[in-house]
Amino acid sequence: MVAERNISSPANSAERAALKIGAGDTVKVWVKIQEKKRVRLQAFEGLVIAVKHGTEAGARFTVRKVSDRVGVERIFPLYSPVIDHIDVLRKGEVRRAKLYYIRTKTAKETRAKIRQIMAEGRKAAVVTQTVETEKENEEVAEAVEKS
Distances in Å between the alpha carbon of 116 and those of 12, 74, 93? Predict the structure, then answer.
């Protein structure tokens, strides 16, 4: 009997729990793929549309990407040993915990929705700055007018 080569390695649970992946983030998940006798890494890059069970042992997240105008979704267990590492490319600010409605939107509408929410967040941050002197007050007023 031929012994099969195990491609899984233990996941660093502290590192994975510290990732803080959330809905709206753009991530690149590097998955180990075994081809005959060698192991290679394959990237799956897309938008996180759902995170379930937080950081507990059964935690998982769903990543969606559009490939050749066809939507592809993949569910990854957070602590899977088949995942080599996860890169968070961009943090997105969204108003929902689950982004299942993204399935019916085009890619352009999705980008516009996330961009609009992020722009609103930046504008609110500029307005809520505390102002101590008149000079700073004028600078903040000019910044608000420009944006």
Answer: 36, 26, 10
Q: Measured between alpha carbons, how far is 2 from 52 in angstroms, rounded to an integer? A: 38
Q: What is the dihedral of CA 37, 40, 46, 51, to 10 degrees?
A: 70
**Nearest CA among 83, 44, 51, 88 for reference residue 66:** 44
- pTM for the whole thing? 0.68
Task: Please count the other Cβ atoms lying within 10 Å of the Cβ belonging to residue 13.
Answer: 12
Tell me which amino acid residue 142 is: E
Q: Each residue of 10-47: pLDDT tens digit?
A: 677 888 888 889 999 999 999 999 998 999 999 999 99
- Measured distance CA(19)–CA(114) in Å, rounded: 21
Fold of the CATH domain 1-103 = SH3 type barrels. (2.30.30)
Other residues' Cβ atoms within 10 Å of the Cβ of residue 88:
14
